Amino acid sequence: MTHCLVTGGAGFIGSHLTEQLLALGHQVTVIDNFSTGRPANLAPFHDNPRLAVHEADISEADLDPLFAGVQWVFHLAALADIVPSIQQPGPYHRANVDGTLRVLEAARAAGVARFVYAASSSCYGIPDLYPTPESAEIRPMYPYALTKWVGERYVMHWAQTYGLPAMALRLFNVYGPRSRTSGTYGAVFGVFLKQKLAGHPYTVVGDGSQTRDFTYVGDVARAFIAAADSGVTGQALNVGSGQTYSVNRLVELLGGPVTHIPKRPGEPDCTFADTTLIHRHLAWRPEVSLEEGVARLLAEIDYWREAPLWTVDKIEVATRDWFKYLGRTS
Fold first, then answer.
1. The domain spanning residue 301 has which CATH number?
2. Rounded mean pLDDT of 258-277?
3. pLDDT band at 186 (very low <50, low <70, confident <90, very high)
4. CB under 8 Å to 210, separation ≥6 — which residues?
């Protein structure tokens, strides 16, 4: 049994990682401020005696006592979403950069055996090469992407300078059960599933031919565990599905009418991970196809019943600053 600590463990990916760690017999400490994470995400295994949940903000709390005896650290706590990061970059830097620094220092003081950081493929911006390798030029297009990449740089530097056994996983378009249902306009799956429940057409950006490397959350959680169980350090690895799928294909699988909204500046026409390195170093491969993943989501679609309904008018208002600022750099 390994004592694991998961920051953001009540969130979308964090709760799946926590579930898998518990299933493997590990002891898990979760730190979450519940700004986006939900206690309900941990409810199915809340009574597990090997789980301890602490409501705390990594940017403010005294972390050292929570790291006592911890061997593996998974740092997933962060502020996400594009538009809020454009409107309020300060809180994003505080959570994603300053918060990461504090978690790194707590981990270093505790002498942890492994540290795995949830990085973002948004660091690539609009890349020149598909599938995109880890060696691609870093081109963050908005503050969220920038702060996640700066956090990654801190992790790599702590590995280099202090010998912290740390690495990062650059995640591509993660989807699956328990994805966030509240807050700002964001991930396509949450938007579409609520629209399906409400009998509204799917708001497809552009002509829907743009493709995304949709990666199932259970596969992503396995990648984190494989990373912790490896000897890889000081390296960032892509985590992707090995495929890239059009939004039109997603709509086809979900079924229902479509309405089109304007294409947005700063968004790539394609995201597609080159997963050569993670196959080589971690022997990790995705297992869940988009077709199977979407079927699992549709089986649990009631989860999104309380999610906000994004109509064309609401999306236009929510993305106004997106066009205002990112349109200048396109």
1. 3.90.25.10
2. 95
3. confident
4. 246, 247, 267, 268, 269, 270
Q: How far apart are CA 255 and CA 97, in angstroms?
A: 40
Does residue 23 sit within a domain? yes
Radius of gyration (C-alpha) of the chain in whole angstroms: 19
Q: 180 and 168: one domain?
A: no
Task: Specify whether 157 is located in the same domain as 266.
Answer: no
Q: How far apart are CA 285 and CA 301, in angstroms?
A: 27
- DSSP per-residue string spanning 90-142: HHHHIIIIIHHHHHHHHHHHHT-SEEEEEEEGGGG-S-SSSSBPTTSPP---S
- The residues, ordered by sequence, that sit 6+ positions from 165 with a Cβ below 8 Å of its Cβ are 112, 113, 114, 115, 159, 233
pLDDT one-digit tens code per residue, 154-168: 999 999 999 999 999
Question: Does any domain span residue 283?
Answer: no
* DSSP notation for 31-76: EE--SS--HHHHGGGTT-TTEEEEE--TTTS--HHHHTT--EEEE-
| Phi and psi, residue 85, nearest 5° | -70, -30
* Rounded-to-integer distance, Cα 174 and Cα 215, Å: 5
Residues in the chain: 330
Q: Are residues 187 and 129 in the same domain?
A: no
Question: How far, in Å, CA of 84 to CA of 92, rounded?
Answer: 9
H/E run at residue 312: helix 312-318
| Residue with the larger pLDDT of the pair 328 and 174 | 174
Q: Is 122 exposed, middle or buried (0-12, 13-18, 19+ CB in 10 A)?
A: buried
- Residues designated as active site: 144
Question: What's phi and psi for 224, nearest 5 deg?
Answer: -60, -45
* Bridge partner residues of 11 (DSSP): none
For 75, the token pair is 């740092």
Could you tell me if 15 and 134 lie in one domain?
yes
